[in-house]
Amino acid sequence: MAEFQRAEGVAIVTGAAGGMGSHCARLLGEAGWSEIILCDLDEARLGAVAEDLRAKGVTVDLLGGQITDPAFTSQLLDKVGARAIGAVIHTAGVSPAIFGDKDKLLEINLDATQAIVDAIRPRMAQGGAAVLFASMASYFPISSEADAAFEAPLPAGGSAELRHLVPNEGAAYTLSKRAVRAIAKREAKAFGDRGARIMSLSPGLIDTPMMAGEKNPQTEAMLSGAALTRLGRPEELAAAAVFLTSPQAGFITGCDLRVDGGALSSLGI
Description:
Blueprint: E1 10-14, H1 19-30, E2 35-40, H2 47-55, E3 59-64, H3 72-80, E4 85-90, H4 102-120, E5 124-133, H5 144-151, H6 169-192, E6 197-203, H7 209-212, H8 217-225, H9 234-245, E7 256-259, H10 263-266
Parallel strand pairs: 1-2, 1-4, 2-3, 4-5, 5-6, 6-7
Helix pairs in contact: 1-9, 4-6, 5-6
Pfam families: adh_short (PF00106), adh_short_C2 (PF13561)
Family: Belongs to the short-chain dehydrogenases/reductases (SDR) family.
InterPro entries: NAD(P)-bd_dom_sf, SDR_fam
């Protein structure tokens, strides 16, 4: 047996039409994944990504739909079929700059992430891995009560039971992504019992259309003070995510990888 052996099964990318997700899909194909499911809100937007992968011999399935739809996870598992799940890179999410409804933001970033994790957990292959996209913003405190609540398991009623702790859209983003980090940490043992891994990845300031809508004096100051005073590239983020799904990262689980150019460390975090 080879020292490093990739998990069997299908790879899944959510938000696959976006700048980060599309690069993740491309690099998974280059890493040898021969079966990939691409998910995004609008299936038509996945066409170009799928075409490039298929040209390289990858079998591609497409799933369009809102990840907060209760039917989304069952539709995803229908696409998986009898196959095991070898890799998941969950990039889908929204920021307050492009989505101004704090309640919906919580549902998309948090409730949907937990639903996807619940769906894939029993289907993970031996050696499989899931990477959940969090954010550098998840490290910024809101309040001791809110921080603790969002680091705890999601209540039975979902994020709706936590809305009173969230003052605005910015806080909703920070807290929802804090919760994503907590999910990866909390789920590590359950995934490990299947011989699989789960972790989160926290992007910093990345050169994407989403970032263009978030430029303000605060982000400019953060960038100028970072260890690397430039925006990250989507392909750099994708390379880190795909590495985490690889057998070479086989002893990494239950933690968060900060891909932020040293912005947080420069803030003493």
